Every structure is written in structure tokens, then in C-alpha cells.
Amino acid sequence: MTKSILLVGVGGQGTILASKLLTTGLMEAGYDVKMSEIHGMSQRGGSVSSQVRYGEKVESPVIEIGGADILVSFEKMEALRWLKYLKPEGKAIVNDHRIDSMPILNGKAEYPEGINEELVEKANATIVDVATKAKELGNPKVMNVILLGALVKSMGLDEIDWERIIKENVKERFIDLNIKAIKVGMDLVK
């Protein structure tokens, strides 16, 4: 049975790093894994998505509309934008975090109100305050690894040696911080 995970966010949030750590862990656990990433205008705060599919034999990295088992969103408006990709019985993990896009910053658009309520109404969505957890760890940039921890726990993938994977794939000075972050993320999910 192939599982499909869609990770979405805004450029600079670490969506791609989280996807690469996830892919490495899944491969080391013996799964066939396919990953594709779309950067969009990521350098300018634009939308970024990464699709990870894993199982015994995976033919394609592409997740069709209504095909994702889980949607992990690093920014709440992105969750709403990508919600149509989630299976009806799928689950969403959403960072309760707002990043204003250029049209909003320029006054040409408004950030929608009631996003969290809409997400909970339309999907099995868990909204988590990852920004506060990252600040408690002393670095807002670890929101991505906290979300990865929440994903790992909710998918039942916590038996993989994530600590070693972080040690092998993260810059040395950030290893301890990221190990703490993935543990915090796992603790967010019951």
C-alpha cells in the first residue's frame, strides 16, 4: 500500500529540508520512495510544495487531487490552498502560522479570516502552534523539523532512527537543536 504525503509552505520555511529528511528516513527503513518538489517563487516567499510517496513499490512521485493521505502545512493559508489534494479520509497537520504574501504586503489582497475554522470544518485537521514551540527552543527556523516530528508520529514512523538521520544531514552546529525539535514535534501528537 503506497502512502502519499504532501508538504506545503512558503519559501524559506525549510519545507524541502523536512522532505529530504523524511525521504532519507523512509528509504533507510526499506521503503521504495519517490519525491518531487516544486519551488515556485520560493526565494520571494512564494508557495513551495514537496510530494513524498512511499510503499513497497512506488511508480510515480506525483500526488493527484484527492490523493494525499496526509497534508503537512508549514503556513495555514497554504493548507487551505492545497486542501483539495487531501483524501476525504486524509489528515492535515497545520502550523498555526501566518506569512503575508507580496500581494498582501502591497495592499492588493487581504489575508483571509477564519482559516483554522475552515480547515477543521473541511478536513480532519490538527492545528498546532509550532512557532511558539520553536521560540521555546530558541530558534524559529526549526518549525520545519518540529512539523516533521509531528508527521513522523502521526504516520507511525517513529521507530526510524531520526536522530542519526538528522546527524548525517544537518549542519553540525544545528544537530542538537534539530534533535530537540523532532522530539518536540513527536510529543505534539497523541
UniProtKB/TrEMBL annotation:
Entry keyword annotation includes Transport: no
Q: Which UniProt keywords apply?
A: Oxidoreductase
Instruction: Name it.
Output: Indolepyruvate oxidoreductase subunit beta
Q: Which GO terms describe its molecular function?
A: oxidoreductase activity, acting on the aldehyde or oxo group of donors
Name the coiled-coil region(s).
none
InterPro entries to which the protein is assigned, alphabetical: IorB_Oxidoreductase, Pyrv/ketoisovalerate_OxRed_cat, Pyrv_flavodox_OxRed_cen
Residues covered by the Pyruvate/ketoisovalerate oxidoreductase catalytic domain:
11-187
Matching Pfam families: POR (PF01558)
